[in-house]
Amino acid sequence: MGQEQGLGQGRGLGRGRGRGRLKLLVGLVCVSLVGAAGCTSDESAGSGKTASAYKDGTLRVLASSELSDMEPVLKAAKKATGISVELTWSGTLDAAEEVASGKADGKYDAIWLSSNDYLRLRPEAAVKIGSETPVMSSPVALGVRPDALARLGWKPEEVTWSAVHEAVAAGRLTYGMTDPVRSNSGFSALVSVASGLSGAQAALSDADVKTAQPKLKQFFAGQKLTSGSSGWLATAYAKRGDVDALVNYESVLLAMNRDAKTDLTVVRPRDGVVTAPYPLTLLTSAPAGARESGRSLTDWLRGTEAQKLITERTFRRPVAAGVAPAGGLNPEKRRELPFPGSRQVADGLLASYENELRRPSRTVYVLDTSGSMAEGNRIGRLRDALTELTGTGNSGPGQRFRDREEVTLLPFGDKVKQVLTHVVEPGNPGPALDGIRKDAGALRPEGGTAVYASLRAAYEHLGKGNADAFTSIVLMTDGQSGDKAKDFESFHAALPEAQRHTPVFAVLFGDSDRKELTRITEVTGGRLFDATGGNNSLRGAFEEIRGYQ
Hints:
Layout: E1 21-24, H1 33-36, E2 58-64, H2 71-81, E3 84-90, H3 92-101, E4 110-112, H4 117-120, H5 123-126, E5 129-134, E6 136-144, H6 146-152, H7 161-169, E7 175-178, H8 184-198, H9 206-220, E8 223-227, H10 230-240, E9 245-249, H11 250-259, E10 265-267, E11 275-276, E12 279-283, H12 288-301, H13 304-314, E13 317-318, H14 343-357, E14 361-368, H15 378-388, E15 406-412, E16 420-423, H16 430-441, H17 451-462, E17 470-477, H18 485-493, H19 497-500, E18 504-508, H20 514-524, E19 527-530, H21 537-545
Parallel strand pairs: 2-3, 2-4, 7-8, 7-9, 14-15, 14-17, 17-18, 18-19
Antiparallel strand pairs: 1-3, 4-12, 5-12, 6-9, 6-10, 6-11, 6-13, 15-16
Helix pairs in contact: 2-12, 2-13, 7-9, 8-9, 9-14, 15-16, 15-21, 17-18
């Protein structure tokens, strides 16, 4: 399950995230969807790697990262056709920007995203698309725990988006969903909910979104888990045990049942869904040899052998006539809900979600400003990475701290040096963003490395504020802690249950201890991000973490 990603002036949903090149020539490591989260290289974020020059018989493809589960299919394709596929992971909207700007020309021969719908909203991108052929499909669905299904008295085939909204608004259903600004599945889920609750019959418009806004706000009040990737969302969901459902692609939910041993009932709302058709799309800039390879690969992927393999291994639905869907895929059709009719509507929906609809965020940045941060301008890279998150005056969705967000900087050395908190006010974000920039610029390297005492201070700070928010801690350190892990672990174990759900997202940087940071993320239910790959890798890691806050 990939680190899907998106929008806002062509950035967001995956900018700088999970872009590791993967050559499918002999064989890869990850097969299952749950395991595939590890295939989208966190370590390559911000590394600046680019695709190689075109080689005959190798198709260079910019792809949605959830397609890492297609490894067995592409191995079979290489054996049958001789065509190797070289994938570079991206998000749908980030890919749209790369294509529209011309940066994809000569670098990639094709794109393979969950959908080209957003791409078509950009005329400068649409003209760069050659042939596009759907290879498989998966609708947005709701996976519900058996006890929640029984409590609600739902018959899965009769559930509508209105029924889901009513259950959430009444406090009878909670759920998790990936971040629409950085996740393909999250964006599709947002469009599904907005279309379903607005009653739109044609292309989703600003008026439709406005009509649905009160219900959308009620709906997103029930979101208890957010994530930048489906893989981490599945893991967090399994650990939590107090979240009733997940909104994601049908294929992801069924793969969770198989690979993570969950027992979700997959519900495709009766009033309609948004479906990802996964079109393999050749670019007009691709050389003749690549276009021929692309057509041959597409023909094979749509053949009977490949279609059977695809649906059995990935739980996506076949597009070829005569090939039956895998077991567990209900063949009953659903109406396709309307996609936004313009980029303005799509971006407006994202901005509304970010700044008005979703629960606000509270984040503490626990920042190592010990003496070792003076080495190699590490402190300068930290200042730059934090400043990048404040965006600019005209930043779009995903390009700055959100409205209503509480951001706390907690720099430490031998002890916590300061606790600096800013709240981004709706309609007047400037003062808070300016304050964060000023505080980031004032960070100075001095002292030792009291990681665990500083984490404890972060949890204590979060315990004093608004409980109805997505809370998280970002730990950045360039060295090994000078205090004791077991003291922090005892402290964490004694926290109230709600606070124990606050994850620590740790950033591997400089000379930090991977084993130590991995243990912290395991104890807290967080995730490790690697920022050791280059001068800009810390920016990339911080930006990627934004999808989890």
